[in-house]
Fold this protein.
Amino acid sequence: MKFVQPFRDPEIIAAIKKDLLNRKNLRNYILFEVGINTGLRISDILQLRVRDLKQKYLYMTEIKTGKQKTFEMNPTVRRGLLDLLQDRDDDEYLIRSREGVNKPITRNMAYKILRSLGEKYKVNGIGTHSLRKTYGYFFYKKTGDIAMLQKIFNHSDPAFTLRYIGIVQDTINAATRSFRV
């Protein structure tokens, strides 16, 4: 299993969002926006429906852990997504497949979408966990609260959370860049 990276550059994130909206690729835009703004696992994101965004809180049972989770999405992000989805039924999946009637895309398709974004924007090591890691990376950079992020991610060890979001690697890179004998 390859260790994937978060999107670390805010300019690249903004460019991806702008590009997806300009190309009117709402499905991929919603996937990206929900992923980097919730920190949910891809398996949980793919199960979300339009009605879930209409509530203040997302209530779900995590597929991987089976644990109940309540999550309040940023209201600005939620309203922006609802504006894009105003003509869709409440029962429709947020990230709907083009095949079949009202089915979500597969995890494999999500991987292909994200890998192509990584290739286009020359960001190495992108996979389905990159969205979750991006959320964690920026949450930690903004708040510095590893204990809260550990709780959000349901991790048992703060050291694992730091390694997971790429902060440990950033710290190593910064140290080796400035080190000279």
In short: Residues 129-143 form the longest helix (15 residues).
